[in-house]
Amino acid sequence: MFVDTSCSPDAPKLPSVSVSPSGQIVEGSSVTLTCSSDANPTANYAWYKENQTLFHGPEGSYNFISISSEDRGIYYCKSENQYGWINSSSLFIDVLYAPKLPSVSVSPSGQIVEGSSVTLTCSSDANPTANYAWYKENQTLFHGPEGSYNFISISSEDRGIYYCKSENQYGWINSSSLFIDVLCK
After folding, report:
1. Nearest to 78 by CA among 19, 18, 14, 20
2. Which of these, 158, 60, 63, 166, lies nearest to 114 by C-alpha position?
3. Do residues 11 and 37 touch, judged by C-beta distance below 8 A?
4. What's the half-sphere exposure (Cβ side, CA atoms, 13 Å) at 40?
C-alpha cells in the first residue's frame, strides 16, 4: 500500500541562505539576506548576527537599505515551526569601505629635542586596508602601506605642521593637523 507523505507535518529542513547582490558588498549599498527551508506547516524565520536577533517573522528575508561597516560580521538564520527548528550554516558578510578619520600620534610624547628619534603614526579603519602618506605642509614625506614615519635624528628644520592621508580604492581622508615643535639642545 502506497502512503502519500507529502502533506504530513514535518520540522524544517536545513535552511539555504543567500546574499543579493552576490559578489563584493560596498558600504552604502542595498543588500538582502534570504533564508528558505522546506517545512510543513510553513516555517517562521529569524536572522541573527553573532547571536543578536535582527529579525523574526514569516518572511525569510532581511534587508539592509544602506549597509555600513558596522554590519560586517557572521550571520545565520533559524527556520522554525511547531515540530522543530534548525539553524542555517554561517554566512560571513564582508563590507568594503573607505578609510575612516585617521588617528595620529607622536612618539615619544612630550617635548621633542633636536637629535632625538621621533615616530609619527597614522592609523585608520578601512576595508581593504589603507595605504598611508605623511605630509609636511603639503610636501609629501612618505607613501606606503605602513602608517609610520620616522625621524632618526630630528632637527630644528623639521619643526612644522604635519598630517597624514589614509586611502584605499573606495576613498581617502586626511587626518587633523599635528604641530611638531623641535627644541634646540
Report:
1. 14
2. 158
3. no
4. 6
Phi, psi of 177 (to 5 degrees): -80, 155
DSSP element (H, E) containing 20? strand 16-20
SS3 call for 27: coil
C-alpha cell at 177: 593637523
Q: What are the pLDDT tens digits along the chain (185 aa)? A: 444 455 678 889 999 999 999 899 999 999 999 999 999 999 999 999 998 999 888 899 999 999 999 999 999 999 999 999 999 999 999 999 999 999 999 998 889 999 999 999 999 999 999 999 999 988 999 888 999 999 999 999 999 999 999 999 999 999 999 999 999 87
Rounded CA gap, 102 and 162, in Å? Answer: 13
As given in the structure block, the three cell numbers for residue 17 are 541562505
The grid coordinates of residue 94 equal 564582508
Helix (H), strand (E) counts: the chain: 0, 20
Residue 96 CA, chain-centre distance (Å), reads 7
Indicate the pTM of the whole model.
Answer: 0.81
Cα 171 from Cα 99, distance rounded (Å): 7
**Is there a contact between 118 and 111 (Cβ–Cβ < 8 Å)?**
no
